[in-house]
Amino acid sequence: MTAVTPFAPRQPIADDPLDPGFGVYVHWPFCAAKCPYCDFNSHVRHQPVDQDRFVAAFLKEMETMRRLTGPRTVTSVFMGGGTPSLMRPSTVSAILSGIAGQWHMPDGIEITMEANPSSVEAERFRGYRAAGVNRVSLGVQALNDRDLKFLGRLHDVEDALKAIRLAREIFPRMSFDLIYARPNQTVAEWDAELKQAVSYAVDHLSLYQLTIEEGTPFYGLHKAGKLIVPDGEQSAVLYEATQEITAREGMPAYEVSNHARPGAESRHNLTYWRYGDYVGIGPGAHGRLSTGGAKIATATERHPETWLSRVEENGHGMVDQEVLELSEQADELLLMGLRLTEGVDLARWQALSGHDPDPAREQFLIDHGFLERLGNSRLRCTPAGMLILDAVVADLAC
Protein backbone atom coordinates (compact mmCIF):
# COMPACT_ATOMS: atom_id res chain seq x y z
CA MET A 1 0.00 0.00 0.00
CA THR A 2 1.46 3.32 -1.02
CA ALA A 3 1.43 6.22 1.42
CA VAL A 4 -1.63 8.39 1.28
CA THR A 5 -1.25 11.73 -0.40
CA PRO A 6 -1.35 14.89 1.75
CA PHE A 7 -4.72 16.42 2.44
CA ALA A 8 -5.76 18.67 -0.40
CA PRO A 9 -6.89 22.21 0.46
CA ARG A 10 -10.63 22.27 0.91
CA GLN A 11 -13.39 24.68 1.78
CA PRO A 12 -14.24 25.19 5.48
CA ILE A 13 -16.39 22.29 6.58
CA ALA A 14 -19.96 22.64 7.77
CA ASP A 15 -20.30 26.25 8.88
CA ASP A 16 -17.80 28.62 10.47
CA PRO A 17 -15.04 26.80 12.39
CA LEU A 18 -14.66 29.88 14.60
CA ASP A 19 -18.24 29.39 15.83
CA PRO A 20 -18.29 25.83 17.22
CA GLY A 21 -21.95 26.07 18.22
CA PHE A 22 -23.89 24.76 21.22
CA GLY A 23 -24.94 21.13 21.23
CA VAL A 24 -27.19 19.03 23.45
CA TYR A 25 -26.26 15.39 23.99
CA VAL A 26 -28.83 12.99 25.49
CA HIS A 27 -27.64 9.56 26.63
CA TRP A 28 -30.03 6.60 26.54
CA PRO A 29 -28.05 3.93 28.42
CA PHE A 30 -29.95 0.74 27.58
CA CYS A 31 -29.13 -1.96 25.04
CA ALA A 32 -30.72 -5.27 24.09
CA ALA A 33 -27.28 -6.92 24.48
CA LYS A 34 -23.76 -5.81 25.39
CA CYS A 35 -21.26 -6.15 22.54
CA PRO A 36 -17.95 -7.80 23.55
CA TYR A 37 -15.83 -4.85 22.31
CA CYS A 38 -17.94 -2.09 23.88
CA ASP A 39 -16.81 -0.02 26.85
CA PHE A 40 -19.55 2.61 26.47
CA ASN A 41 -21.94 3.29 29.32
CA SER A 42 -24.58 0.80 28.19
CA HIS A 43 -26.66 -1.58 30.25
CA VAL A 44 -28.94 -4.54 29.58
CA ARG A 45 -32.24 -4.74 31.44
CA HIS A 46 -34.41 -7.87 31.27
CA GLN A 47 -37.51 -6.03 32.44
CA PRO A 48 -39.12 -3.15 30.52
CA VAL A 49 -37.56 0.24 31.24
CA ASP A 50 -39.90 2.82 32.76
CA GLN A 51 -39.51 5.30 29.92
CA ASP A 52 -41.96 7.81 31.40
CA ARG A 53 -39.93 7.99 34.60
CA PHE A 54 -36.68 8.45 32.68
CA VAL A 55 -38.22 11.16 30.49
CA ALA A 56 -39.30 13.06 33.61
CA ALA A 57 -35.72 12.82 34.89
CA PHE A 58 -34.25 13.98 31.57
CA LEU A 59 -36.53 17.02 31.67
CA LYS A 60 -35.60 17.75 35.27
CA GLU A 61 -31.87 17.56 34.57
CA MET A 62 -32.36 19.88 31.60
CA GLU A 63 -33.79 22.50 33.95
CA THR A 64 -30.63 22.35 36.09
CA MET A 65 -28.38 22.57 33.05
CA ARG A 66 -30.35 25.55 31.75
CA ARG A 67 -29.57 27.40 34.97
CA LEU A 68 -25.86 26.73 34.33
CA THR A 69 -25.81 27.72 30.67
CA GLY A 70 -28.24 30.61 30.64
CA PRO A 71 -30.08 31.32 27.38
CA ARG A 72 -28.38 29.68 24.40
CA THR A 73 -29.28 28.80 20.83
CA VAL A 74 -28.98 25.08 20.14
CA THR A 75 -27.14 24.22 16.91
CA SER A 76 -27.46 20.42 17.14
CA VAL A 77 -28.94 17.60 19.21
CA PHE A 78 -27.54 14.09 19.43
CA MET A 79 -29.25 11.12 21.09
CA GLY A 80 -26.67 8.43 21.74
CA GLY A 81 -26.26 5.37 23.86
CA GLY A 82 -26.78 2.59 24.47
CA THR A 83 -29.44 2.08 21.87
CA PRO A 84 -31.71 5.14 21.52
CA SER A 85 -33.79 3.30 18.91
CA LEU A 86 -35.19 1.24 21.80
CA MET A 87 -37.04 4.39 22.87
CA ARG A 88 -40.66 4.89 21.90
CA PRO A 89 -41.21 7.73 19.42
CA SER A 90 -43.26 9.46 22.13
CA THR A 91 -40.20 9.38 24.41
CA VAL A 92 -38.05 11.00 21.71
CA SER A 93 -40.75 13.62 21.10
CA ALA A 94 -40.92 14.48 24.81
CA ILE A 95 -37.14 14.84 25.05
CA LEU A 96 -36.95 17.14 22.03
CA SER A 97 -39.84 19.21 23.34
CA GLY A 98 -38.01 19.51 26.64
CA ILE A 99 -34.86 20.80 24.94
CA ALA A 100 -36.90 23.35 22.98
CA GLY A 101 -38.52 24.44 26.24
CA GLN A 102 -35.17 25.19 27.90
CA TRP A 103 -33.14 26.67 25.04
CA HIS A 104 -33.84 28.33 21.71
CA MET A 105 -34.01 25.53 19.13
CA PRO A 106 -34.37 26.89 15.58
CA ASP A 107 -36.19 24.90 12.93
CA GLY A 108 -34.02 22.73 10.71
CA ILE A 109 -31.03 22.19 13.00
CA GLU A 110 -29.34 18.78 12.90
CA ILE A 111 -31.08 16.29 15.22
CA THR A 112 -29.36 12.90 15.19
CA MET A 113 -30.37 9.63 16.77
CA GLU A 114 -28.28 6.46 16.91
CA ALA A 115 -30.04 3.24 15.94
CA ASN A 116 -29.15 -0.43 15.74
CA PRO A 117 -30.40 -2.37 12.70
CA SER A 118 -31.83 -5.08 14.95
CA SER A 119 -34.21 -2.60 16.60
CA VAL A 120 -35.35 -0.88 13.40
CA GLU A 121 -38.97 -0.88 12.32
CA ALA A 122 -40.46 1.31 9.61
CA GLU A 123 -43.28 2.52 11.83
CA ARG A 124 -40.87 3.46 14.61
CA PHE A 125 -38.55 5.24 12.17
CA ARG A 126 -41.46 7.28 10.86
CA GLY A 127 -42.38 8.09 14.44
CA TYR A 128 -38.87 9.40 15.12
CA ARG A 129 -39.02 11.50 11.97
CA ALA A 130 -42.38 12.95 13.03
CA ALA A 131 -40.86 13.76 16.43
CA GLY A 132 -38.19 15.89 14.74
CA VAL A 133 -35.22 13.58 14.13
CA ASN A 134 -33.68 14.44 10.75
CA ARG A 135 -30.48 12.41 10.84
CA VAL A 136 -29.95 8.80 11.87
CA SER A 137 -26.65 7.05 12.62
CA LEU A 138 -26.80 3.26 12.22
CA GLY A 139 -24.49 0.91 14.09
CA VAL A 140 -23.93 -1.51 11.19
CA GLN A 141 -20.28 -2.37 12.11
CA ALA A 142 -19.67 -4.98 9.37
CA LEU A 143 -21.12 -6.08 6.05
CA ASN A 144 -20.58 -9.81 6.40
CA ASP A 145 -22.41 -12.16 8.72
CA ARG A 146 -19.28 -13.89 10.01
CA ASP A 147 -17.83 -10.70 11.45
CA LEU A 148 -21.20 -9.45 12.71
CA LYS A 149 -21.45 -12.62 14.77
CA PHE A 150 -17.85 -12.18 15.99
CA LEU A 151 -18.67 -8.59 17.05
CA GLY A 152 -21.70 -9.81 19.02
CA ARG A 153 -24.22 -7.92 16.91
CA LEU A 154 -27.86 -8.99 16.97
CA HIS A 155 -28.46 -8.20 13.29
CA ASP A 156 -27.25 -9.80 10.09
CA VAL A 157 -26.36 -8.17 6.78
CA GLU A 158 -29.94 -8.46 5.52
CA ASP A 159 -31.18 -6.57 8.60
CA ALA A 160 -28.48 -3.93 8.09
CA LEU A 161 -29.37 -3.31 4.46
CA LYS A 162 -33.06 -3.13 5.32
CA ALA A 163 -32.31 -0.52 7.98
CA ILE A 164 -30.14 1.47 5.56
CA ARG A 165 -32.88 1.45 2.92
CA LEU A 166 -35.48 2.59 5.47
CA ALA A 167 -33.20 5.34 6.77
CA ARG A 168 -32.55 6.62 3.26
CA GLU A 169 -36.28 6.64 2.57
CA ILE A 170 -37.41 8.35 5.78
CA PHE A 171 -34.62 10.69 6.96
CA PRO A 172 -33.04 13.58 5.07
CA ARG A 173 -29.59 12.51 6.29
CA MET A 174 -28.11 9.17 7.27
CA SER A 175 -24.77 7.78 8.40
CA PHE A 176 -23.59 4.37 9.46
CA ASP A 177 -20.61 2.95 11.35
CA LEU A 178 -18.20 0.20 10.40
CA ILE A 179 -15.41 -1.35 12.47
CA TYR A 180 -12.25 -2.49 10.69
CA ALA A 181 -8.87 -4.00 11.63
CA ARG A 182 -10.79 -7.10 12.61
CA PRO A 183 -8.93 -10.41 13.13
CA ASN A 184 -7.47 -11.78 9.89
CA GLN A 185 -8.97 -8.94 7.84
CA THR A 186 -7.03 -8.30 4.65
CA VAL A 187 -6.72 -5.07 2.72
CA ALA A 188 -8.49 -6.66 -0.25
CA GLU A 189 -11.45 -7.72 1.93
CA TRP A 190 -11.70 -4.27 3.51
CA ASP A 191 -11.41 -2.61 0.10
CA ALA A 192 -14.39 -4.61 -1.20
CA GLU A 193 -16.46 -4.05 1.96
CA LEU A 194 -15.73 -0.33 2.04
CA LYS A 195 -16.64 0.15 -1.62
CA GLN A 196 -19.92 -1.62 -0.89
CA ALA A 197 -20.49 0.65 2.12
CA VAL A 198 -19.91 3.81 0.07
CA SER A 199 -22.47 2.60 -2.48
CA TYR A 200 -25.08 2.25 0.30
CA ALA A 201 -24.25 5.43 2.20
CA VAL A 202 -25.96 8.72 1.39
CA ASP A 203 -23.38 11.21 2.56
CA HIS A 204 -21.53 10.09 5.71
CA LEU A 205 -19.59 7.12 7.12
CA SER A 206 -17.89 6.60 10.50
CA LEU A 207 -15.04 4.09 10.20
CA TYR A 208 -13.38 2.96 13.43
CA GLN A 209 -10.46 0.64 14.03
CA LEU A 210 -11.23 -2.18 16.43
CA THR A 211 -9.62 -1.34 19.75
CA ILE A 212 -9.30 -3.67 22.71
CA GLU A 213 -10.69 -1.80 25.72
CA GLU A 214 -9.95 -2.85 29.29
CA GLY A 215 -12.94 -4.34 31.08
CA THR A 216 -14.55 -5.78 27.95
CA PRO A 217 -14.82 -9.50 27.08
CA PHE A 218 -12.49 -8.91 24.13
CA TYR A 219 -9.85 -7.59 26.54
CA GLY A 220 -9.79 -10.86 28.48
CA LEU A 221 -9.61 -12.91 25.30
CA HIS A 222 -6.84 -10.72 23.89
CA LYS A 223 -4.83 -10.91 27.10
CA ALA A 224 -5.15 -14.69 27.07
CA GLY A 225 -3.88 -14.83 23.50
CA LYS A 226 -7.21 -16.08 22.15
CA LEU A 227 -8.00 -12.94 20.15
CA ILE A 228 -5.37 -11.67 17.74
CA VAL A 229 -5.95 -8.32 16.04
CA PRO A 230 -3.80 -6.71 13.34
CA ASP A 231 -0.53 -5.29 14.64
CA GLY A 232 0.40 -1.63 14.33
CA GLU A 233 1.89 -1.96 10.87
CA GLN A 234 -1.09 -3.84 9.44
CA SER A 235 -3.52 -1.43 11.13
CA ALA A 236 -1.67 1.47 9.51
CA VAL A 237 -1.98 -0.18 6.11
CA LEU A 238 -5.73 -0.63 6.65
CA TYR A 239 -6.05 3.00 7.75
CA GLU A 240 -4.20 4.21 4.66
CA ALA A 241 -6.42 2.06 2.45
CA THR A 242 -9.47 3.58 4.15
CA GLN A 243 -8.30 7.10 3.34
CA GLU A 244 -7.51 6.26 -0.28
CA ILE A 245 -10.77 4.46 -1.01
CA THR A 246 -13.08 7.00 0.62
CA ALA A 247 -11.29 9.94 -1.02
CA ARG A 248 -11.51 8.23 -4.39
CA GLU A 249 -15.22 7.54 -3.87
CA GLY A 250 -16.01 11.19 -3.03
CA MET A 251 -16.31 10.74 0.73
CA PRO A 252 -12.97 11.97 2.12
CA ALA A 253 -12.00 12.11 5.78
CA TYR A 254 -12.81 15.33 7.61
CA GLU A 255 -11.83 13.80 10.96
CA VAL A 256 -9.58 10.87 11.76
CA SER A 257 -12.47 8.35 11.72
CA ASN A 258 -15.24 10.23 9.92
CA HIS A 259 -15.89 10.67 6.22
CA ALA A 260 -18.45 12.75 4.37
CA ARG A 261 -19.35 14.29 1.09
CA PRO A 262 -18.45 18.01 1.33
CA GLY A 263 -21.15 19.81 3.31
CA ALA A 264 -22.52 16.63 4.95
CA GLU A 265 -20.24 16.53 7.98
CA SER A 266 -21.83 15.85 11.38
CA ARG A 267 -22.63 19.28 12.78
CA HIS A 268 -22.90 17.95 16.32
CA ASN A 269 -19.58 16.13 16.33
CA LEU A 270 -17.90 19.20 14.84
CA THR A 271 -18.99 21.06 17.95
CA TYR A 272 -16.98 18.56 20.03
CA TRP A 273 -13.91 18.64 17.80
CA ARG A 274 -13.96 22.44 17.48
CA TYR A 275 -14.16 22.61 21.26
CA GLY A 276 -17.55 24.22 21.46
CA ASP A 277 -20.01 24.04 24.34
CA TYR A 278 -22.36 21.12 24.82
CA VAL A 279 -24.72 19.95 27.52
CA GLY A 280 -24.69 16.30 28.56
CA ILE A 281 -28.03 14.93 29.77
CA GLY A 282 -28.59 11.41 31.10
CA PRO A 283 -26.60 8.64 32.81
CA GLY A 284 -22.87 8.94 32.17
CA ALA A 285 -23.17 12.00 29.93
CA HIS A 286 -20.34 14.53 29.79
CA GLY A 287 -20.51 18.23 28.99
CA ARG A 288 -18.37 21.32 28.42
CA LEU A 289 -20.07 24.58 29.35
CA SER A 290 -18.96 28.21 29.33
CA THR A 291 -20.57 29.97 32.26
CA GLY A 292 -19.67 32.94 34.44
CA GLY A 293 -16.47 33.61 32.53
CA ALA A 294 -15.22 30.04 33.06
CA LYS A 295 -15.43 26.73 31.23
CA ILE A 296 -16.61 23.77 33.26
CA ALA A 297 -16.50 20.06 32.60
CA THR A 298 -19.53 18.12 33.81
CA ALA A 299 -20.10 14.39 34.22
CA THR A 300 -23.15 12.53 35.50
CA GLU A 301 -23.61 9.29 37.41
CA ARG A 302 -23.11 6.33 35.07
CA HIS A 303 -25.45 3.75 36.63
CA PRO A 304 -28.92 4.40 35.17
CA GLU A 305 -31.08 3.73 38.22
CA THR A 306 -28.68 5.53 40.56
CA TRP A 307 -28.68 8.51 38.17
CA LEU A 308 -32.48 8.39 38.15
CA SER A 309 -32.67 8.54 41.96
CA ARG A 310 -30.15 11.38 42.10
CA VAL A 311 -32.13 13.45 39.61
CA GLU A 312 -35.40 12.85 41.42
CA GLU A 313 -33.81 13.89 44.71
CA ASN A 314 -31.45 16.70 43.61
CA GLY A 315 -32.66 17.86 40.19
CA HIS A 316 -29.57 16.50 38.43
CA GLY A 317 -27.30 13.47 38.29
CA MET A 318 -23.99 15.32 38.17
CA VAL A 319 -21.13 13.74 40.09
CA ASP A 320 -18.39 15.99 38.75
CA GLN A 321 -18.33 19.70 37.95
CA GLU A 322 -14.78 20.95 37.38
CA VAL A 323 -13.63 24.42 36.41
CA LEU A 324 -11.01 24.00 33.70
CA GLU A 325 -7.83 26.07 33.82
CA LEU A 326 -6.94 27.92 30.63
CA SER A 327 -3.99 25.56 30.10
CA GLU A 328 -6.35 22.56 30.35
CA GLN A 329 -8.67 24.16 27.82
CA ALA A 330 -5.73 24.75 25.48
CA ASP A 331 -4.73 21.08 25.75
CA GLU A 332 -8.29 19.93 25.09
CA LEU A 333 -8.61 22.27 22.10
CA LEU A 334 -5.41 20.80 20.67
CA LEU A 335 -6.45 17.20 21.39
CA MET A 336 -9.81 17.64 19.70
CA GLY A 337 -8.88 20.03 16.90
CA LEU A 338 -5.96 18.05 15.52
CA ARG A 339 -8.38 15.22 14.78
CA LEU A 340 -9.87 17.41 12.04
CA THR A 341 -8.45 17.89 8.57
CA GLU A 342 -9.09 21.62 9.00
CA GLY A 343 -6.79 21.57 12.05
CA VAL A 344 -6.64 24.00 14.96
CA ASP A 345 -7.14 27.76 14.96
CA LEU A 346 -3.80 29.03 16.28
CA ALA A 347 -5.10 32.36 17.55
CA ARG A 348 -7.66 30.58 19.72
CA TRP A 349 -5.07 28.15 21.04
CA GLN A 350 -2.64 30.99 21.79
CA ALA A 351 -5.36 32.93 23.64
CA LEU A 352 -5.98 29.95 25.92
CA SER A 353 -2.41 28.76 26.41
CA GLY A 354 -0.87 32.22 26.64
CA HIS A 355 1.98 31.36 24.27
CA ASP A 356 2.85 30.19 20.77
CA PRO A 357 3.60 26.53 20.06
CA ASP A 358 7.18 25.67 20.99
CA PRO A 359 9.05 26.51 17.75
CA ALA A 360 11.54 23.65 18.07
CA ARG A 361 8.85 21.02 18.75
CA GLU A 362 6.63 22.34 15.97
CA GLN A 363 9.49 22.41 13.47
CA PHE A 364 10.56 18.88 14.45
CA LEU A 365 7.06 17.57 13.74
CA ILE A 366 6.87 19.53 10.47
CA ASP A 367 10.31 18.32 9.33
CA HIS A 368 9.31 14.71 9.99
CA GLY A 369 6.11 15.08 8.00
CA PHE A 370 3.64 14.82 10.90
CA LEU A 371 2.39 18.40 11.08
CA GLU A 372 1.83 21.31 8.70
CA ARG A 373 0.87 24.97 8.82
CA LEU A 374 -2.04 26.35 6.82
CA GLY A 375 -0.80 29.89 6.35
CA ASN A 376 -0.26 31.63 9.66
CA SER A 377 -3.70 30.84 11.08
CA ARG A 378 -4.06 27.06 11.38
CA LEU A 379 -2.06 24.00 12.34
CA ARG A 380 -3.02 20.46 11.34
CA CYS A 381 -1.78 16.90 11.25
CA THR A 382 -0.68 15.37 7.98
CA PRO A 383 -1.97 11.90 7.05
CA ALA A 384 1.22 10.45 8.55
CA GLY A 385 0.59 12.47 11.71
CA MET A 386 -2.93 11.12 11.98
CA LEU A 387 -1.44 7.62 12.33
CA ILE A 388 0.36 8.72 15.53
CA LEU A 389 -2.10 11.41 16.59
CA ASP A 390 -1.76 10.88 20.34
CA ALA A 391 2.03 11.18 20.17
CA VAL A 392 1.83 14.36 18.05
CA VAL A 393 -0.60 15.99 20.49
CA ALA A 394 1.48 14.95 23.51
CA ASP A 395 4.68 16.32 21.96
CA LEU A 396 3.11 19.61 20.89
CA ALA A 397 1.26 20.18 24.18
CA CYS A 398 4.39 19.84 26.36
From TrEMBL:
It is found in: Cytoplasm. InterPro entries: Coproporphyrinogen-III_oxidase, Elp3/MiaA/NifB-like_rSAM, HemN_C, HemW-like, rSAM, rSAM_sf. The keyword Amino-acid biosynthesis does not apply. CDD domains: Radical_SAM. Residues 16-252 form the Radical SAM core domain. The keyword Cytoplasm applies. Gene3D superfamilies: 3.30.750.200. Pfam families: HemN_C, Radical_SAM. Keywords: 4Fe-4S, Chaperone, Cytoplasm, Heme, Iron, Iron-sulfur, Metal-binding, S-adenosyl-L-methionine. Belongs to the anaerobic coproporphyrinogen-III oxidase family. HemW subfamily. NCBIfam families: hemN_rel. Probably acts as a heme chaperone, transferring heme to an unknown acceptor. Binds one molecule of heme per monomer, possibly covalently. Binds 1 [4Fe-4S] cluster. The cluster is coordinated with 3 cysteines and an exchangeable S-adenosyl-L-methionine. This is Heme chaperone HemW.
